[in-house]
Amino acid sequence: MTINWKVVQEDFSFTDFEILSTLGSGGFGTCYEAKYKTTHVCVKKLDRTSKKKAATQSFQAETKEEFFNFSHPNIVKLLAASPANLLSTDAVVADLVMVFEFIEGRNLQSLLDDHEEDIGASEMLRFGHEIASALDYVNGFHIAHLDLKPANVMVTPDGLCKLADFGCSQYIEEDPVTPTRSCLTGTFAYRAPELLRGGSPSAKCDVYALGICLWQFWSREFPFSGMQQHAVIFRVVKSNLRPEFNKDKPIDPSYKDLTTRCWSADPCARPSLQEVMETLTFMKDPTDLHR
Question: pTM for the whole thing?
Fold first, then answer.
């Protein structure tokens, strides 16, 4: 059965769905595995009774008009959302609901944390390439994701990465006189230094976050673990603090070089996402990464 979501989204509400299970909760709401008629979906319901401004801004960011037309194998597809006129209604009464394709699997952070999962060199390169491909597609619409991290990447049972959670996304502004401010800052450990200084979002901000992820694929550790947030932010901006490479764990020099170029303090020194994909594709024998 094919559902015309563009029609459905005009009048649906949370009560229209058969909730099967709770997938997880975040700062603004909860995600559910659900069914709409006979279609298996993921429903994200935002709670606006607290953090109202941030929740509303996150909903607006995640339901940009472009997202409904996105078609990319490495991006979780947005199917429908509550009508925009609900944004002006009473937050206690109105539901803000988004409907996504349901992805069987788990997020990439969970995979990295699972020590029984063998993540070899080929997986590291593939993760990086698929995520870079998704980001490049998004940036092509003049949108920066701005919250890339393994927890926001779903991995299907056959290993395909799908980028999710666009709640911090912003349009990329060309030479802005006054940068657009957002109260949604993403996750500090992956946030580019120019954003921490209050600068404008750009595609190179996503490249920076991808660099942190590349390090994490290799290390299987959380960046800046155990450090206080304000200390990390200050040192990332002022003294070029970055995650450390364990000298006792082998790493291919080409992979390390790509990682460090991605998180360069100078956005202009970071590679494009196309260059990242080409480097990962043509990197020498990936088995060398763990020799």
Answer: 0.89
